Amino acid sequence: MNTKYNGNNLFNKLPSSILSKIFVLAQNPQLSLLNKNMYYISQQVSTASKYIVNHILSSIRFSFEWRLENILNRYTRIRTNEAIGALVLRKIKSLDYETALRLAFKYRWKNVLNKLLKMYVVVDESTSAVVHMNTIFMNEDEYLDIDIGKYISQSNEPQKEETDIRVFDSIYIAPIITKIDASDILMCEMLEIVGESDVQMLIDICNARFEFPPDISSSVGRDVRCIDNKFMTCCMLTAARRVCGLNNLGWLKRILDFEFNVNFPFQ
């Protein structure tokens, strides 16, 4: 009797949920070559994301960020699949916003990046209480588990006056992206900006607007950009440098025509 054949036949009869769990727990990518069913299951977004999360949480020797980047850098198909990246981030508990932003930028997860830029909290200044958190992720009722508190507590008065958005007398909106130095965090990743697609990503970052509910937008307006002047300047100067290297006058004109609303000291 052919034992190998019988083993494969047994696996072929298992439901997809069991095959997925076996692949995730085994933590052996070679298992995908067992048969066609296992290969198909291993290629599914849900299975791949669970495999990665199980991998990065299986050891305390290295940070989850290091382990995540290690596996993403090894498998091109995984890191270029934004759906997998989004699911992985959503499964991480107490996710650091800066880490999520850097990963989304580095791996060009543009939809994830857009959602991160639009996250904010509404704070009652009189009590320092967060009355609303807009951390909705890719779909309605899906939230990132982000430690919001540290970004609010770290706010200083000069920064609040520049970046926070006053709604009512004691109520203000605190955009999370402005509570960090995004241009500094993404400095190394900016060096990897190469083609027109990357330049478009930078322009999209600068054009990102908040999506406030009607009761808030009636007070602050609908045309409110997400990022602060420093990050916007960094993005557009990087984009201009890159398109000059590409000798693309059309793209350069788009950048020069961009409405910065920033006072450059060298103008």
Report on the biggest sheet.
4 strands, antiparallel
Strand tally? 4
Largest sheet, order of strands side by side? 2-1-4-3
Radius of gyration, taken over Cα atoms and rounded to an integer in Å: 22 Å
- The class by helix and strand makeup works out as alpha+beta
Low-confidence stretches: 262-267
What share of residues is helical?
Answer: 55-70%
**What percentage of amino acids are in beta strands?**
5-15%
Helix count? 17
Q: What gross morphology would you assign?
A: globular
Task: Give the mean pLDDT.
Answer: 82
Run of helices and strands: HHHHHHHHHEEHHEEHHHHHH
Per-chain topology:
Layout: H1 3-13, H2 16-26, H3 36-42, H4 45-56, H5 64-74, H6 76-79, H7 82-91, H8 97-106, H9 110-117, E1 120-124, E2 129-134, H10 149-153, H11 157-163, E3 165-166, E4 171-175, H12 182-185, H13 187-190, H14 196-207, H15 214-220, H16 229-246, H17 249-256
Antiparallel strand pairs: 1-2, 1-4, 3-4
Helix pairs in contact: 2-3, 2-4, 4-5, 4-7, 8-9, 14-16, 16-17
Question: Care to describe what's here?
Answer:
By secondary structure, this protein is an alpha+beta fold. The chain has a domain at 12-92. The protein is built from 17 helices and 4 strands. It has helices at 3-13, 16-26, 36-42, 45-56, 64-74, 76-79, 82-91, 97-106, 110-117, 149-153, 157-163, 182-185, 187-190, 196-207, 214-220, 229-246, 249-256; strands at residues 120-124, 129-134, 165-166, 171-175. It has a 4-stranded antiparallel beta sheet with strand order 2-1-4-3, covered by helices on one side. Helix 4 (45-56) packs across helix 7. The N and C termini lie far apart (83 Å). The relative contact order is 0.08. Mean pLDDT is 82; it is low at 262-267.
